[in-house]
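REVIEWER CHECKLIST
Item 1: Sequence provided? yes
Item 2: Single chain? yes
Item 3: Sequence as submitted:
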Amino acid sequence: MNRPASDAAVPDEAFLLALARLPRVGPARLRWLVDSHGAAGAWQAVLAGRIDPADLRPVGREVVTETVVEWRRVAATVDPSACWQAHLDAGLGVAGRSSPAFPAPFAGDDDPPCVVCWQGDLDHLAGARAAVVGTRRATRYGLDVAHELGRGLADAGVAVVSGLALGIDGAAHAG
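Item 4: Structure as written out by the authors:
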């Protein structure tokens, strides 16, 4: 199910997407994994159980040894190339930091993300933009405000950017 890192047909973005799907992998951990091993190498290290828990800083009451074991278990069920294809089939763009498709506004950031997924035209990033980010389990009032805010921003020519999550993010984009 999991393709080896040597398979040149699998782009780094496929491994980035797969790594980002692992439990308790946020932006900082994804960056650490990629900076330490490269995208494909990090995926292979997770699959082989070669991630040293001593290298991870626990989050909250997390037991990092359990996290690393869970990463390996979950990774065994994920096919990076299928994850990549699902994003393409859904019409989503995906670019890692080293990709020529990586959006210039993010590349110039002091702390750029390892991977960016988007839907729509990236040319909108060239102008004014505002991030609308919030909870996934929003109240009706919160969803209505986010929707209205998104519509007002769009009407004013401001691109709405977010993590594309359900809830506040999605409501702002729908507006």
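Item 5: Key structural point noted by reviewer: Helices lie at 12-20, 27-37, 39-48, 64-75, 80-89, 104-107, 140-155, 168-174.
Item 6: Recommendation: ____
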